Amino acid sequence: MERLYESQKLALWYFWTAIILFGAQLLFGLLAAIQFINPDFLYGTLNFMTNRMLHINAMVVWLLMGFIAGIYWFLPLETGREVVGIKLGKLAYFAFVGAVAVVVLVYLLKQYGSGDFFTMWFITEGREYIEAPRWADIGIVAVALIVAFNVVGTAVAARRLTGILGVLMVDLAFLFGLYLAGMFFTPNISVDQFWWWWVVHLWVEATWEVLVGVLMGWLLMHLLGTPRKIIEAWLYVEVMLVFGTGILGLGHHYYWIGTPEYWLGIGGFFSSLEPLPLVAMVIHAVYDAGVHKLKTVNRPALFWAFAQAFGNLFGAGVWGFMHTLPQINLFSHGTQLAAAHGHLAFFGAYVSANLALFYFALGKTRVKEGYILNGTPWKIAYVGLIIGMFGMTAALTVAGFAQTMIERATLGSTWEAFMQAQMHPWMEEAFRWRLFFGVMFFLSYIILLYDLLTAGRRVEALREAEVAG
Amino acid sequence: MGIGWLEVVVATLLISLVISLVLARGRHWLEPGFWKVAAVITSSVMAITLVLLTFHTVQAISMGSKRVPGPEVINKEIGYVYNADRRAMEPIVGKEVGLFGKVWSPKEAEELITKGKLVIQSRNCMDCHTLLGNGAYYAPDLTKAWLDPKWEKQIMPMVGANSREEAMKVWLMNPDKYPTWVRRMPNLRLTEEEARAVVAYLKWMSAIDTNGFPANFPEVQVSKQ
User: Fold this and answer.
1) Distance from CA of A176 to the nearest CA of B (A)
2) Quick check: ipTM above 0.95?
3) pLDDT by residue (tens digit) across B99-130?
């Protein structure tokens, strides 16, 4: 076992908090999935809107925490020194966790407020994905700035600026800057949605992708010993492709919110190129693993890195491409097809990445040098989570197809058309399948949690028992 | 419109390619440095293009523009008809009819719309409904909710109102009392003032030109002026 930097200990705190919030995300997702089948379930007590808000907000927060953990884990290794503002970093961690706890309590106990600015500041902003009240928004920016300060400060103190660090710094600047685009109120919903997508799309389809590229690059370097030169060349290719297609690919969200018609063409063109960097990432991962003949002491980390590459390609790439062209999107926009794409994309691109990082960190903290982290539970969790997610995605894809055809293409997008489509057997059945695979996903999460808690310790106990005879 | 999408696409790609190649000349294409230049230039070109287009778009979608009408449109009749030239549905505005029995001054209308948006956010509408196609998929899309035939066909007789706006207001205040389906909207304790603001907001939103979304929505004509 290696001696840990303080920064890496902080990373572990973030990892554990993230994995607990992951569980919360799944719990509220399950409640929402049940409400699709039985709308009376918790009606009036914990309404769909609250479950759904907690489901997506928990996801955003735990993924961000996982990324911050990844940064704090690799930063001292990259710079060869302790992170400069480690005390500040720890303070930010407690502020972050405390803020999340308060926001969740308010979401659960208060749920909604009256139509005034008090609600915007202290209860919810009611804007999908960025529902957090304004005070928490400011807190998130402060926490983010501390992370950025630590990255820049540590690199300066170590007098070391690698290509990876350079990309990370630029990316963090955009990540935090963009969040500010979501922190104002306007009565004009077209303007609201225009800037809202700067946070939601430019975060998820540009800066998050690059951030994950950085973290996966570090992971491959440390896991497989891939040379820095190859990692950095690929990272630049990925940045070129992700920003090159993703920035104007933003246009595919500007088709129907009141914006001028040129966005149909610009958005359609660039977003159809968006899968390109994802293909590049798969080639990168497969190539490196092949060159190193899959030899690593940490198989779960490697397998989750694989799941990341392929999941990103299928979820973000293929499922995104399915309805990214305006001619199709006119009918599929705002249907279960978007939900199918969202589920697989977030799982593939970000959940898998965080799990790979988590297992990598565990391998360094739990297991003695050279020992292989290779029990059985992680394999069950791995297969269960992947089948669960693909099952949910398949069910939602069928539902989305039916909704697109019945509500949009045939009956004309009215209130009545919506209900007719939702009551169609193809949709009702699909919602049941989604719940079934959702339960499978949740059970796999429990196994994953068990494995994360006991991996290394468990295997070691076994080995010690063997040695003792 | 003045801005063609194809020109933007071709120009950004060409400029990225040419500047990248010029600045990276002399470097081997397998070197990280070659791709570093390409990454910096491509990202910059795309970001600058986005910023330029943003100036144009934000102006084109400001309140009172051709695409996004001003709040006083709530006083007018609003329709949704097929435009053969654009091959898309588009909103049209008819004669003055008022809302809730009065004609709202521009200032009053703006205050009402602002209140409506605050109510919509405070009640978290987007975590069940979709607005302009964005949000959750548990409840119907509200993009053209004001024009929805269901208000007149079912809700007006159900709540005993004699105008669309009154029916919407009463329904919004008591959605649990007037269920339309197994998935019922919960009672979110809207005051009468809040409900009125939401109705005005939905009417205003239905007048936004959304490039033909949602397609196939039943046409709504306005009376001749």
Assistant:
1) 16
2) yes
3) 999 999 999 999 999 999 999 999 999 999 99
